[in-house]
Structure formats: structure tokens, C-alpha cells
What does this fold into?
Amino acid sequence: MISMRMLVSRLAPLLACLGLLGVWQLGALILDTDSFPTAIDAIRAVPSILGDKESLINILASLRRMAVGYSLAVAVSIPLGLMMGRSRGVASFFNPLLMVIYPVPKAALMPIIMLWLGVGDVAKTLVIFLGVSLPVIYHSFQGAKAVEEKMLWSGAAMGLSAAQRMIRIVLPAALPEILTGCRTGLVLALITMVTSEMIARQSGAGNILFNALDMGQYDTVYAMIIIIGAMGIGLDAAFERLRSRLVKWSEPRFEIPLSFA
Amino acid sequence: MNSRVVTSDVLLGIVPIALSIALWQAIVSFGYAPVTLLPPPGMVFLRLAQQLTTTAFQQEVAATLFRLFVGFSIAVILGVGIGLAAAASPAVNAVVRPIVRVLAPLPKVALYPALLLLLGFGHESKIMLVVADALFPILLSTYYGASMVEQKLIWSAMAAGTPRHQILFKVVLPAAVPSILTGCRIGLVISCIVVFLAEMITSTDGLGHLLVTAARTFQAVDMFVPLITISLLGLILNGLLEGLRTYLLRGFPEV
It folds into this structure.
């Protein structure tokens, strides 16, 4: 019985996917316009894109930029966020600056950065870096701020230095919150990746998508949407796996909702 | 004493902003960057002040704000509604959870071409994109907040004679408010970002459109103006939300 329930809960996202595609198919059949092909038509166009060597290279280049930007952002943001959470001075130093930058769409900086760094990889990676780092900093900050003082005092009483306390107490205690931030960052990285390539039309998945839109190749548009969507869902699922392994101890016994934000 | 700590915090916070503006000025005045690529900050802020008084610019801001508000409000209503329903009823939960699981990590900007083709180039497609992006953080934090409500609170309310159907609005919703507001805050920032992006992609008005036109004509000054404007808008809206939060959460223990 339990395994049956497990099976259903495993399959539920898949069923939801199929259901959504079904709704799409129905909607397309009812509307019946050129600009909205049926789900089946769009899926049929997917292999031809993935089979094409040039577009495959483009998509892989996008993923590479995303991976580089994302890792750099995480590596810089977590220490900064933790320090902000533990020291009032650091927090009040950086907070207003971050508040000012947060609502600025990072991809909108693209035209300005492009003037400086050109349309190449550096500009796009930098934009992804900026897009990812803010939520990660914010969540690390919140996580580090919520660490119980008593644990730190006990650590200090047992002779841990400030740096050791940071790594052995604050980091693990804030980890669930940090990973929530990383997950938000992952989605933002994809969004920034697509938009940065849309603005600097040179290579990448976003370039294929918006070029197809401009040229009215609607099958390709929808097929690219499926591909990018699948990337998002796949990366998120992989991340969720990693997350649940790392912070299993912090989960309550009943199932908590997936924490996107 | 307390107010002195606050002022010194504010002063400390102004330092990096002042430093970055000074750096910006320094780069320009020491000639590392030509003025056509990076205009000095004074010029940009002057231009901003100038633009703010013109009706044309005000109309662009109004168009952006309109889309932002409508989209964000719809997202809040839907997100809180669905989130509460999913927390209250296992049946709704079973349907909503897998759909959210699939849709939440989807990069919604990739859906924008589809929205454009379906809804046209007007307000609708942009508002839909804002809704799609702002909905999930709000929905998830509502659900999270509502399902974390202490069972004892519900029992006490029931023991005190609250009818079953009122518990949702009298106990669960107020107890979930801190979490809902956190979600709204993230949703608001995302709305600001998304509305700007949507306007950059295709639009005939709005701040994003201003940026794109300026970029196409290499008017560097005009490129900075919409960026600073959206940053200011985000700050103001965030401040308003913060005010709402302290009003709604008066009497709550500090979270």
C-alpha cells in the first residue's frame, strides 16, 4: 500500500506534465490559429532542433555560461551573506546597496555591459552572476541571522575561533535557508540566461527562441519553449535531490511544500 | 541611544552607495571611459530630474506601474487563495502540488513569446507574464505558512466555539500572514524585474521600452535613466510593503 502511494507521488509531476500538455493540445485545437500550434506539433519539432549540430552547440554554450556564472555567484554570495548575517556592521554596510540593486532587472544591464565588454561570453556570464548573487546573498543573510546565539556561545566557550564558528556552526545551521536561495537563484539564472541572449543576439538558446519568433517559425518557438522549460524542471529536480540529501536533518517528519522562495 | 545606533547604521549604509557613485565619477573624470559610453553621474541624475517633470516620461512610468500593479495584485489574490486552499484541503493539495512542482521552476520568460502570440502586444501579455512569475513565490510561502500553523491554535479556537468554516479566516490566515508577506516581497521584486524585461522585449511604451530605444540610438544617458527609475520604484514599493508589514504584524513577536 505504501509503495503504491509512493508510486503515485513519484508519478504525480509526470501526470501534471501530461495534463498541461493535454490542456495545450485542446486549447490549440479549439483556437486553431497558425501562431499557436498543437502540443504534438511542437514536440515533433524538438528532435529536429536537438539534432541540428549548430543549435545543439548554441544550447550547450548557454548552459556553460550559466554554470560558470552560477558557480561564481554562489561562491561569492554565501560567504558575504553569512558575514552580513553575523555582523551588524557588515549588514548595514551592504544592505542599502543591495536594496538599491535588487529590483533592477539584471538583464536590463546587458545593453550597458555590452558597450563595455562586447557581446561575448564575459558580458553574459557577468549578467548571470549578478542575477544569481542577490537571492543567494539575501537568503544566506536571513539564515545566518536566525542562528541561535546559544550555540555560538557554546562554541566559543569550547574554544572555537570566530572563523571556525562560522564554518562549523553558522554554515550548517543556515544551510537550509542558503539552499532555498540557491534554488531561487537557479531559476533566475535560467531567466537571465534567456533574456541576456535575447538582447545580445549572437548565440545561445534565447537567441534561437527569439529569432524564430521574429521569423514566424512558430513550431520552433514552441519547441524551444519546451526545451528551456525541460531544462528548468530537470535542473530543479536535480537540485531538489541534492538539497534533500544535504539537509535531511532539518526537514520535519511530514512532507513540507517545495520551497521555491 | 537606540536612535543613534539607527543613524550610524544609515550612515554606514550610505557609504558604499556614495563610494560607487564616486568611483563612477572617477572613472569618467580620469578619462578611463569616454563620456559617450559612461556619462558622469551628475549628468544622469540631472537628466532624471528633468525627465521626471515631463508628461511623456510620466506616462511611460504610469504604463509600467499599471502593469506592475495589476499583475502583482492578481498574483497575490491567486497565490493566497490557491495556497490556502491547498493547505486546507488534501484533495486540492493533491491536484495543485504536482502542477506547481512542474510550473514553478519553469523560466517564465521563455513563455513570453507564446503569450505574445496568444494575447498580443498590449497590456495583457505583459500582465500575464508578471502574474506567472510573481504567483509561485506567493503561493508557496502562503502554503508553507498555512501548513505550519500550530495545531494548538486551531484546537483552542475550536474549543472556544469558532465554527469550522471560520477557522481558515480567523486562525490560519492571520497566523500565515508573516510568511505570506515574505512571499509578497519576493514576488514584488520579481514583478519589477519581469515587467521591465517584458517591455524590453516588445513594447511601445514603458520604462523597458525607453531603455531599448536609448540603447539603439546609443544615448548612454537615457539608458541609465530608466534603470535608476525602476530601482527607485522598487525601493518605494518595497518601503510601502514594509510599512504594511509593520502595520499588519503589530503585536506579533519579531520574526
Q: What stands out?
A: Chain B has two domains: 1-33, 40-248. DSSP finds ten helices and no strands in chain B.
